[in-house]
Design goal:
Helix content is 40%, strand content 18%. By secondary structure, the protein is of the alpha/beta class. The chain has a domain of 207 residues: Rossmann fold (3-Layer(aba) Sandwich). Strands 3-2-1-4-5-6-11 form a seven-stranded parallel sheet, sandwiched between helices. Strands 12-9-14 form a three-stranded mixed sheet. Helix 1 links the parallel strand 1 and strand 2. The longest helix is centred in the first third of the chain and has 22 residues. The chain starts with a strand and ends with a helix. The model has no long low-confidence stretch (mean pLDDT 96). The chain binds nicotinamide-adenine-dinucleotide (NAD) and uridine-5'-diphosphate-4-deoxy-4-fluoro-alpha-D-galactose. The site of nicotinamide-adenine-dinucleotide has 28 residues, from helix 1, helix 5, strand 5 and strand 7.
Length: 331
């Protein structure tokens, strides 16, 4: 298939371009480079031997999106492009609503005009709000705790409503849990600018001595060791989930959790990192972070049953690959 990957130079998008090309698909990336670099295209070429097409465009711009569609005949779109910093979305809600929902609408409209019937959307476990884990696709969505999460819930609804009036469309709403790790080549990975908000990139920065110590946000949650529990999933497993979705999609709207189904606490992740890499992580316990839930992990059975996809890589591989990428490319 010939696939448009928006946000394809980003963290999850770049790993998915690799998985798509290795599965025999051809890829065109559209990204405005607001949170990534064009050199990622060279890295994808180094890993796979072929260079994806690339357009530096903003997916909220109708004419720019139209140009890309007019120059290709796509079989499907995977829409990763979006802003994802939860804290920033609270401070600048309009920036998030504008960017994340308008880009989704522009792409849906282009699909309608150019008769592209497959659409895979990057959603997030954050749409479950304060539902209790294990989280199941059939749960009614609760309000997300921040505007970022709302942009995902709204985009899901827009896609569902549009699919309902476009018979023949196949839409996958993929709800990611906590993607971590990097490609085994250590040529692509997660490279946040500034001080990381997320646990794994923070841990790798502490391991390298770039940050002094990790603050563990709360040790009084109702969990086994009191620290927050999440479902960490290797980014390469996640990437393969997109290939499975494209291959197995049938008509209509299908929602899939992409997670391992296993919860890991912050302390367990720190220990797994130390064991996998041999590097000690200094930490201190700090107050809870606002908006965090105690536990968030998937019921991952639907993706396995319907798409034949399940995460294969374990915590040690997640930690080691994140560490190798940090040593190669960390700033
Ligand atoms: P990322 O920031 O690394 O990648 C997103 C890419 O989209 C970037 O390359 C950025 O430059 C691009 N982009 C943003 N707005 C754009 C626009 N208007 N036009 C064109 N390009 C634009 O983030 P990621 O971690 O790879 O996340 C990919 C998607 O998955 C996002 O939609 C994110 O919300 C979603 N998601 C991520 C996580 C996570 O923890 N990483 C969890 C759940 C969902
Ligand atoms: N944590 C710390 N210290 C840190 C960073 C995080 O203790 O410096 C803890 C958090 O409190 C939480 C766990 O580590 O218990 C994971 O936190 P992350 O920030 O790595 O991830 P979140 O689960 O908060 O959120 C992530 C993405 C969201 C996405 C969500 C669900 O950032 O965009 O997963 O997929 F919506």
């Amino acid at each position: 298939m010939h696939i448009l990957v928006t946000g394809g130079t980003g963290y999850i998008g770049s790993h998915t371009c690799v998985a798509l090309q290795q599965a025999g698909h051809s890829v065109v990336v559209a990204d405005n480079l607001s949170n990534s670099k064009k050199e990622t295209i060279d890295q994808i070429k180094k890993i796979t031997g072929s260079r994806p097409g690339f357009y530096k465009i903003d997916c909220t711009r109708e004419t720019a999106v139209d140009r890309v569609f007019s120059e290709h005949h796509f079989d499907g779109v995977i829409h990763f492009a979006g802003l994802k910093a939860v804290g920033e979305s609270v401070e600048k809600p309009l920036k998030y609503y504008y960017n994340n929902t308008l880009s989704t609408m522009m792409l849906i409209d282009a699909c309608r005009r150019y008769d592209v019937k497959r659409f895979v959307f990057s959603s997030s476990a954050t749409v479950y709000g304060e539902n209790r884990a294990p989280l199941v696709e059939t749960m009614p969505l609760l309000p997300a705790t921040n505007p970022y999460g709302e942009t995902k819930a709204i985009s899901e609804r827009i896609l569902s409503d549009c699919a309902a009036v476009n018979p023949g469309w196949s839409v996958a709403l993929l709800r990611y849990f906590n993607p971590v790790g990097a490609h085994e080549s250590a040529l692509i990975g997660e490279a946040p600018s500034g001080i990381p908000n997320n646990l794994m990139p923070y841990v790798t920065k502490v391991a390298r001595g770039k940050l002094k110590k990790l603050s563990i946000f709360g040790n009084d949650y109702p969990t086994a060791d009191g620290t927050g529990v999440r479902d960490y999933v290797h980014v390469c497993d996640l990437a393969e989930g997109h290939v499975a979705a494209l291959n197995k999609l049938t008509r209509g709207v299908h929602i899939y959790n992409l997670g391992t189904g296993r919860g890991t606490s912050v302390l367990e992740l720190v220990r797994a990192f130390e064991e996998a890499t041999g590097v000690k992580i200094k930490y201190q316990v700090a107050p809870r972070r606002q908006g965090d839930v105690a536990e968030c992990y998937a019921d991952a059975s639907k993706a396995k049953k319907e798409m034949g996809w399940q995460a294969k890589r374990g915590l040690a591989e997640m930690c080691l690959s994140a560490w190798q990428f940090e040593k190669n490319y960390g700033q």
